Amino acid sequence: MQFNPFGKDQSKISRVGLGCWQLGSDWGELDLGEAKAILKASVDSGVSFFDTADVYGGGRSEEIIGSFLSEAGLQDEIFVATKLGRFGDLYPDNYTSQSVRARVEESLTRLKTDALDLVQLHCIPTDVMRGDEVWSILDSLVEEGKIKRFGASVESMEEALLCIEKAPGLSSLQIIFNIFRQKPIRKLFDLAQKKQVGVIARVPLASGLLSGKFSVDTTFGASDHRNYNKDGAAFNVGETFAGLPFEKGVALADQLKPMVPDGLTLAQMALRWILDYDAVSVVIPGATRVEQARGNAAIADLEPLSPELHQSLRDFYKNEVRDHIRGPY
């Protein structure tokens, strides 16, 4: 496993983390035993960064992580990034000191800790980000020791740049970044490095499209967001399949397969591609099986992709992908 300095205080975190949305909900059924086995397999493979949110399963993801870390005595070893802003009475226009603090206290309880490592605003409305109040609340929570750092999870480059401008204390930005979503390379990475803002790359496999295992006939369960949000019916369309129509995404993944270097899978190429960008502090693929968790962690030990392949993937994005993405990005 490789480790990276993260944010303004340069905390050391693993370059491959674990996205924990699936521990709570929206990716099909996952029982408690399997969820904890995935967490253990990740830690055993060198992962030291878990990303979750209070809204995942109505707090279930945080509860599972808190229980696991407490039982294993790992609270001081694992960096847990959580989010607030979409759960409880906050969204879309109640980001008051009282309501934000209540959500922080609930996360503290579920994660069984006295101070949250990182609290990220969870895709809150852009107009709220433009104001001063929510940033002032987060600054106060850091001063009081309730949270150690704060960041933001955003949907678009406009929001990412706005957060850097509005919040001098910003530690991190979480963005959608994968072979199908390459805009941050030009718009954000240099500025984030200059400002010592960590970049957390989410949706790295485009909700599984970049595994190369889907066909146009693939179906998903009723509780899986790849079913009910594939066209943005429940939340931002970019969160599912990176904003691509499913059938088009399958076709594009098939076009990528001949580019995969010998000895790698499409998923390995896609994750290694992300880690080849130094501005990315950590990539957070999810896992619904122990084998996936171990395989994802091993990406950090792979050799970087060739410059020629990087150029081919840039051209692929510009010529084949960019015009098909839906939603703000």
UniProtKB/TrEMBL annotation:
It comes from the Bacteria. PANTHER family: D-THREO-ALDOSE 1-DEHYDROGENASE, NADP-DEPENDENT OXIDOREDUCTASE DOMAIN-CONTAINING PROTEIN. This is Aldo/keto reductase. The lineage of its organism: Bacteria, Pseudomonadati, Verrucomicrobiota, Opitutia, Puniceicoccales. Residues 16-316 form the NADP-dependent oxidoreductase domain. Pfam families: Aldo_ket_red (PF00248).
